[in-house]
Specification:
- The complex is a heterodimer.
- By secondary structure, chain A is of the alpha+beta class.
- Chain A is 34% helix and 19% strand.
- Chain A has 26 helices and 22 strands.
- Chain B is α+β, with helices and mostly antiparallel strands.
- Chain B has three domains: 131 residues, Roll (SH3 type barrels), CATH 2.30.30; 128 residues, Nucleotidyltransferase, domain 5 (2-Layer Sandwich); 114 residues, Ribosomal protein L30/S12 (60s Ribosomal Protein L30, Chain: A), CATH 3.30.1330.
- Chain B has 13 helices and 16 strands.
- The longest helix of chain B is centred in the middle third of the chain and has 22 residues.
- The chains are: A alpha+beta, B alpha+beta.
- Chain A: It comes from Hypocrea jecorina (strain QM6a).
- Chain A: It holds the Pfam family GTP_EFTU.
- Chain A: This is Elongation factor 1 alpha-like protein.
Chain lengths: 790, 408
């Protein structure tokens, strides 16, 4: 609904004319101040001043009580760089000029010729102090509102009335109004009002919302109006409870009053910031939020939201609403507000009902359209890579060196490690200790669990997942690989070690990477200094590994070979200075990493899923989960469900790398602080999802498996990320053709390595898994199959 | 289990055997001996309601009596080793009428008598012999663990009982190392207290600690340290007795590889479970070859046995004892006949305990499997079978690429 379409423009004009009456009666002081202000504003505007008329400036000044800065800001916003809608401008400009008709009941309140403009100025509440709020403003929150005799904004000197006085006066006035109702004039007014409210669906929507909530807010125009009336005629400031106002048939006059002020501003009032009380109640306010919020009718539960008036300039709000409804959580106020604006009362009611569901207030959602935000944010790319390879290939040392060279670890920390390591007779492990922080790992010189760390280059934020190489900890490596976008395969080039590694975990890790969908590999040929930077050795290894990788289906162009020395730091960040290595002219490791960042399409539209890879308690005692978002988006305030325990929680905070964010999307490695959940219900390997779109738990799955070893009915371990469940192959449904996937043989006795079969897996416990997920099947310490769940 | 008396009436086949169970393990034997259809005579406690003829007031009374019931079903709780047998009363006495239902609790140190109206078949006789064998090796305790998960099991000659499963959240690396160590200590503490509750270590008893990585070794060190710190002789002895074995995961089925590890075999070579693990392993090895000598599933094995393929030499029939607990007499007889036939042919018939890990693996294969003397094909009904069976065992790299792209 475009604001220009209002068919009651005449009425608007009419009304505006009414208001103009008092405008010319500026007091001399006002005139002087106005003149001075106008000059100053023009000065402040500089060149832009030509775009604004004097009347506009004065108007702004009037509204801002001669606050130059605010007026300038307002003018810039409205006239110089206006939001794409002319309506407010049109509505505000004529106001001071036109002559009154004196027909409207509202006028009776201004009969005393107040030098106060009866309309609520836009941004009226912008000058709302943070503390020591004038009582008159606070009262608007209480029902019925306490009306005051004092001038709003602190300029007035009129005496305040007590609550009781105001109440008495209000009753008196009601009776008068009842009498007045017989007057056809006011009836007409009501009719007009009805027409108006029909046209201004949004306004009525808002009103009805106010009614529904049965609580008033400080910043919606209808409530301010009577207050100002009250300033001039304290005894007449009897407008009654806001909640009832619209429904009371007797309150015709006042009703008309309340609606009229809105009429000239079809897109609602601007910038009525919530009072400090409201802010304290609902959300701490920030400048940024205020900026977004300026066109919002502040309603208790939408205080925090950011309805932008420019919504109307977009091609189709309905589409946006539909998209938002499909995507956003029901609790995001943004959505409910949008609903209301498209005058979907039913949806509004639903939204309200939803809002009432939780008894304890969850963390407030900001109602962000995450996908849009994400598309707009021109932030750096995020990529995570897993470091794999045979045990003792130097993975942790290499990563320790990388962080040291990037100055993310201080030299003295490493020196400290070196001294400690010396005591244990393991000097060469000092760098690895940057990652191997567990005492077990240090004692034994073996990485056991994945270590996560972050660093950034000019173009990309990287997450390192340092995986263990030992065969016993392959499950941990699987967990790491399933969080990674690409991989760094570290190969020990020293004689003997390379051959051993190839037979050992080098092979298994690569197989697992492939099964888990990792496509790109940077092969770091490590410890080349031990063989004198021999180019032949490098070539030999490159060719062999390359053949092996392409044999597994990796594309040649997504494999890079880089000769490095993790211990000494050659070709990692800086090029090697060793003479013997001068033959190598290719990229360094860090360049190789940057070049390998895949431009994967992230599944943002899918339901939110995140596998928990770590759980820890933060300093504040919040349960915090870390993991990589598999699909979908999340934002602060979302209601989540942890499966398989089925416990719900709310997102309190989101951390991406080391910074706090309001939202996160698929593919990012995040830490999520949860509110309202006991940590005993959360286990590593569990899946977090939205309450709205939960993942199912089950214990029997069909899977299309690529066999790496013999498959028969036998006990197996199923791995998916951190999830590690024991179970069995219950039956083998069919042997499938490798290329076409057609059934070759039903119910085979045993599946030979290299073939593909559809197998039925039965797990001992129920786990959250769904079709299309990649899983790895292991038994007896060997990976025997990998495939997709069906 | 003690044999109290054995009475063989001349004209009838129904030989009576009176047995006295001495420890909970005997309950498991009894469970295998008593099958539906048998008559069991045992001590019973029954609530009897008498109506006072004068006043008409009912008067309930718990009466100790001996009852004979015809077994309908048996229920065995492995964790507490309690056996309950329910059936209908087959012999009337002054308290209970014929045909009334009753559930007997077989108790340790109270004798019971079994009468098999259909006679004692070879399997039952074997089971009886096994039950009576005076081979009292204390149950071995085993802890199969991984970080944050421990399964505490008791392995006896005939069965494996998972006593407790300990789960504990051990913080991952994100936390400081101190947190991690504290988490591990807590986990060990939990596991140790559960272990001491599950098994009585006052008499020396072998303990197996199995895990991937270093968890088991650390746990052993932890027990030793606790023993030192608390100057607890029992704990010190436990730590000394403990054998650390490598396992690939902390789940119970890893017990299978634990039991066939050289460390364990050296210690308890003669234990039944060690042998069972070997049988099932050799079967799996043959099955992998897929040369038609290893078959599983009732139908295939039946055919092979009928053909005499499970004969002298290498022929072995592996069968879970759970099959002989079948409620259907005909089924039970069928399997007994299979065993008898293999024995007659000169083959080896091994009855595996379905309560051991090896039995569990056999169960996944349909409780029955056989290693044949000579290859046989087409034992499964599927006619289209042959094509796929020719799949070369060597993995073809190119094929794999296609498939990976398809699957992944």
């Amino acid at each position: 609904m475009a604001p220009q379409d209002y068919d009651d423009d005449d009425f608007v004009d009419q009304y505006d004319e009414d208001l103009g009456e008092e405008e010319d009666e500026l007091s001399p002081e006002d005139k002087i101040a106005m003149q001075k202000g106008t000059e100053e504003v023009r000065k402040a505007l500089g060149e832009e001043a030509s775009k604004v008329t004097v009347a506009q400036i004065q108007e702004a000044l009037w509204h801002y009580y001669y606050d130059i800065d605010k007026s300038v800001a307002y003018l810039t916003r409205t006239f110089i760089a206006p939001p794409p809608k002319p309506a407010p401008k049109a509505a505000q400009k004529p106001a001071p000029k036109k002559a009154p008709e004196g027909k409207n009941g509202a006028l009776s309140f201004f009969a005393s010729g107040a030098s106060f403009k009866p309309r609520i100025p836009p941004n009226f509440f912008d000058d709302m102090p943070w503390l020591n709020i004038p009582r008159d403003r606070e009262t608007t929150f209480i029902e019925p509102p306490r009306l005051c005799g004092g001038l709003l904004g602190g300029t007035g000197s009129a005496p305040k009335v007590s609550k009781l006085q105001a109440l008495a006066a209000m009753r008196k006035r009601k009776i008068e109004e009842k009498k007045a109702q017989e007057n056809p004039d006011s009836l007409e007014g009501e009719v007009t009002k009805l027409a108006l409210s029909d046209a201004n669906q949004e306004n009525t929507g808002t009103k009805s919302k106010i009614q529904r909530r049965n609580s008033s807010t400080d910043s919606s125009p209808p409530q301010e109006q009577p207050q100002k009336q009250g300033q001039n005629i304290p005894t007449a400031s009897t407008d009654n409870s806001l909640g009832e106002r619209v429904t009371l048939p007797t309150a015709t006059e006042s009703k008309t009053d309340h609606i009229i002020p809105q009429a000239p501003k079809p897109v609602m009032s601007r910038s009525h910031a919530p009072s400090a009380f409201a802010q304290a109640l609902f959300e701490s306010d920030s400048e940024a939020d205020q900026r977004h919020r300026r066109d919002v009718f502040a309603m208790p539960y939408t205080q925090s939201s950011l309805f932008v008036a420019s919504v109307f300039s977009e091609p189709s709000p309905d589409d946006i609403v539909l998209a938002a409804r499909a995507k956003a959580t029901p609790k995001t106020p943004k959505k409910s507000q949008k609903n209301e604006e498209t005058s979907k009362d039913g949806a509004l009611a639903g939204g309200v009902a939803n809002l009432k569901v939780t008894d304890s207030p969850p963390p407030k959602s900001k109602g962000i359209d995450v996908i849009k935000e994400f598309e707009q944010s021109a932030s750096k790319k995020h990529a995570s890579f897993v470091v794999v390879g045979h045990v003792d290939a130097g993975k942790s040392t290499l990563m320790g060196r990388l962080l040291l060279e990037l100055k993310l670890v201080q030299e003295r920390t490493v020196d400290k490690y070196r001294r400690q390591a010396e005591k244990m007779g393991k000097t060469s492990f000092a760098l690895a200790w940057v990652f191997d922080q567990r005492s077990e790992e240090r004692d034994r010189g073996v990485t056991i669990d994945i270590a996560t760390n972050h660093f950034e280059t000019d173009s990309t934020n990287f997450t390192i997942l340092d995986a263990p190489g030992h065969r016993d900890f392959v499950p941990n490596m699987i967990a790491g690989a399933s969080q990674a976008d690409f991989a760094v395969l570290v190969i020990d080039a020293s004689t003997g070690a390379y051959e051993k590694g190839l037979k050992g975990q080098t092979k298994e890790h690569v197989l697992l990477l492939r099964s888990l969908g990792v496509q790109r590999i940077v092969v770091a040929v490590n410890k080349l200094e031990a063989v004198g930077w021999s180019q032949e050795r490098f070539q030999e290894i490159s060719e062999e590994i390359s053949g092996f990788l392409t044999g597994l289906g990796f594309q040649e162009k997504s494999i890079k070979f880089i000769p490095i020395s993790g211990l000494n730091g050659d070709n990692i960040v800086k090029r090697s200075e060793d003479e013997a290595c001068s033959w190598y002219t290719g990229p360094t490791l860090i360049e190789g990493l940057e070049a390998s960042v895949p431009s994967t399409v992230r599944s943002l539209q899918k339901p939110f899923r995140m596998a928990i890879s770590e759980i820890f308690r933060s300093q504040q005692g919040t349960t915090t989960l870390a993991g990589r978002i598999d699909s979908g988006t999340i934002q602060v305030g979302d209601a989540l469900l942890v499966q398989p325990s089925g416990e719900s929680a709310h997102v309190r905070s989101i951390m991406l790398d080391t910074e706090t964010r309001d939202w996160a999307v698929a593919g990012q490695n995040v830490s999520i602080g949860l509110a309202g959940i006991d940590p005993v219900h959360v286990k590593v390997g569990d899946i977090v999802c939205h309450t709205k779109d939960p993942i199912n738990v089950g214990d029997t799955f069909t899977m299309k498996a690529m066999a790496f070893a013999h498959l028969m009915p036998m006990p197996v371990d199923l791995h998916r990320g951190r999830l590690h469940a024991a179970g069995q192959i219950q039956s083998i449904a069919a042997l499938l053709d490798k290329a076409t996937g057609e059934v070759i043989k039903k119910k085979p006795k045993v599946v030979q390595p290299g073939s593909v079969a559809r197998v039925l897996i039965k797990l001992d416990t129920k786990v959250p898994l769904e079709a299309g997920q990649r899983v790895v099947i292991r038994t007896g310490g060997e990976t025997i199959a990998a495939g997709l769940l069906e | 289990m003690k044999l109290v008396s054995r009475h063989i009436p001349k004209e009838l086949e129904d030989e009576q055997v009176s047995l006295l169970p001495e420890d909970p393990e005997d309950m498991w034997h009894a469970y295998n001996l008593i099958v539906p259809g048998d008559l069991v005579h045992a001590h019973a406690v029954r609530k009897v309601v008498n109506i006072n003829p004068g006043t008409g007031v009912p008067n309930a009374e718990r009466v100790h009596t001996n009852l004979v019931i015809r077994v309908k079903s048996t229920f065995f709780d492995p964790a507490v080793a309690s056996l309950r047998i329910s059936g209908v009363v087959a012999a009337e006495n002054e308290h209970v009428a014929m045909g009334a239902h009753h559930t007997l609790d077989i108790e340790v140190n109270r004798s019971f008598t079994i009468i098999k109206p259909d006679g004692w078949d070879s399997v039952a006789k074997n089971a009886l012999a096994e039950a009576l064998s005076d081979d009292k090796n204390g149950a071995m305790a085993a802890v199969v663990m991984q970080e944050g998960l421990a399964n505490i099991c008791l392995i006896t000659q005939f069965r494996t009982v998972v006593k407790t499963r300990v789960e504990s959240v051990v913080p991952k690396k994100r936390d400081t190392a101190a947190d991690q160590d504290a988490g591990m200590r807590k986990f060990f503490e939990k596991t140790l207290s559960s272990l001491l509750r599950a098994a009585d270590f006052s008499e020396s008893r072998p303990l197996l600690l199995a895990s991937p990585g270093f968890v088991a070794q650390d746990f052993k060190d932890y027990i030793a340290k606790q023993g030192r710190d608390k100057s607890d002789k029992v704990l010190t002895a436990v730590a000394k007795q403990a054998t650390v074995v490598h396992a690939n995961s902390g789940h119970v089925h890893s017990l299978n590889e634990v039991l066939k590890s050289p460390e364990v075999l050296a210690k308890m070579r003669n234990m039944k479970y060690a042998k069972e693990a070997q049988y099932i392993d050799s079967f799996f090895e043959l099955l992998k070859l897929d040369d038609g000598r290893a078959w599983y599933g009732t139908k295939a094995v039946e055919k092979a046995v009928a053909d005499g393929a499970v004969g002298p030499g290498s022929g072995v029939l592996l069968i879970n004892n759970s099959l002989f607990r079948s409620e259907d007499l005909a089924t039970r007889k069928k399997y007994v006949a299979l065993v008898d036939k293999v024995m007659r042919d000169g083959g080896d018939a091994r009855i595996l305990s379905s309560d051991h890990e090896s039995g569990q693996r056999l169960k996944m294969l349909g409780d029955i499997a056989a290693i044949l003397n000579y290859p046989m094909h087409d034992l499964d009904e599927d006619e289209e079978a042959e094509a796929a069976e020719q799949t070369p065992p060597r993995r073809d790299e190119d094929d794999q690429v296609d498939m990976l792209d398809d699957v992944i």
